Amino acid sequence: MTLPDTITGWDWRASAQRIWFLMRREFLAIWKDKRSRTVLILPPIIQLFVFSYAATFDVKNATLGILNEDNGPAGRELVARFSASGAFDPVARLTSVREIAPLIENEKALAVLHIGPTFSRDLLGARNTGRTAEIQFIVDGRHSNTALIANGYAGNIVEEFTASYAASQPGAVPRMMPRLVTHAWFNPNFESRWFIITGLVATLTMIVASVTTSLSVARERELGTFEQLLVTPLRPLEILVGKILPPAILALGEGILLALIGITIFGIPMRGDPLLIIAGLAVFMLSVTSLGVMISSLASTQQQAMISAFCFMMPAIILSGFATPIENMPEWLQVATYANPLRYMLVISRGVFLQDMPASLVLANIWPMAVIGVITASAAAWLFRNRLQ
């Protein structure tokens, strides 16, 4: 038994045919539009490659400073195990305890391995004091997730060393076995919330600024009011500045609000000067909004502007070190991160919140964002002027 062609006056075959023609028309429209083809094909492929290289929670070649005050063979063997593990990259050989703090505070090393001067003797029990041989592992708690993983790797290396030592010394006293003592600076309890929220202050502010700015010119063009704007006494540069500043001011206010919420509701400590955060956000907003105007000038519709802004934001977040460490990425991809303003703003945000970062280090991360802002603003002005002609 077959269904009739019409049921209660509905011609199913004709309806299916009309839907098929409409679907065919939409597919052809998308395929014939060069920009739509580009958005559909290139960004997913590019992001797949970027994410596959950059988005990894494994810790590889984590920067490590080594302070070995022990002259015995046990200390040298332990250092050799850390160096050959593949999880750590020894970037500094320290000679005194005073060098530990600057190394971690300036983010030149994620962790420092400190072996005391009596390590080998404590292992052999030469003093016969029952003293445990301790190994200090000092990590940068600002990167809580990476620090936890690195701490786990360090524990595994020490366990393997202990097993090897116990096998070579059958009569060794158990209490003489080495013990790993971890010190997490700036985030002693490895609170992941501190790491995430201090990063979100910068990341969410960037999203607000880039989306708002990227829609500005495209909205005017799509609604037909862009031509009306051109006949006003405003000059192109004035229009450009007028398009950049309002989203930048709104996003700056959003960033300050997010910082206040993090402090008052989530208990994030503010150890540095809040004015340094505001200064960093101001420069950061100018660079991001300039890029948003570039996107808006190239897009013909708001939909194209939204898609283009999304294609910028996702790689920018992944390549900023927000969730995964930049040190894990291939070297060629690490070079690309220097053109990402979010990378520098994350350092400022986490440093001022958790570390009491000095103004000199904040300035060292502000000027690259200023350079990026000047370059993107110049490109936006050129594109904006050419689109007006």
Could you describe the 3D structure shown?
The protein folds into 2 domains: 62-185, abc type-2 transporter like fold (3-Layer(aba) Sandwich), CATH 3.40.1710; 192-388, no CATH class. Helices cover 64% and strands 9% of the residues. The chain has helices at 12-32, 34-54, 73-84, 100-105, 119-124, 144-168, 192-223, 226-230, 236-264, 274-298, 302-318, 331-336, 341-354, 359-388; strands at 6-7, 10-11, 62-68, 88-93, 111-115, 134-140, 179-185. The strands form 2 sheets. A 5-stranded mixed beta sheet has the order 4-3-5-6-7. Strand 3, helix 3 and strand 4 form a beta-alpha-beta unit. It starts with 5 loop residues before the first strand and ends with a helix.
Q: What is this entry, summarized?
A:
By secondary structure, the protein is α/β, with parallel strands linked by helices.
Features:
single chain; alpha/beta; 2 domains; 9% strand; abc type-2 transporter like fold; 7 strands; five-stranded mixed sheet; two-stranded antiparallel ribbon
Shape: elongated
Strand order of the largest sheet: 4-3-5-6-7
Helix content: 55-70%
Structural class of the secondary structure composition?
alpha/beta
Please indicate the count of domains: 2
What's the count of strands? 7
How far apart the termini lie comes to: 66 Å
- Computed CA radius of gyration, to the nearest angstrom: 28 Å
What is the mean pLDDT? Answer: 80
Q: What ranges have pLDDT less than 50 throughout 5 or more consecutive residues?
A: none
Order of helices and strands: EEHHEHEHEHEHEHHHHHHHH
**Main β-sheet description:** 5 strands, mixed
Query: How many helices in DSSP terms?
Result: 14
Beta content: 5-15%
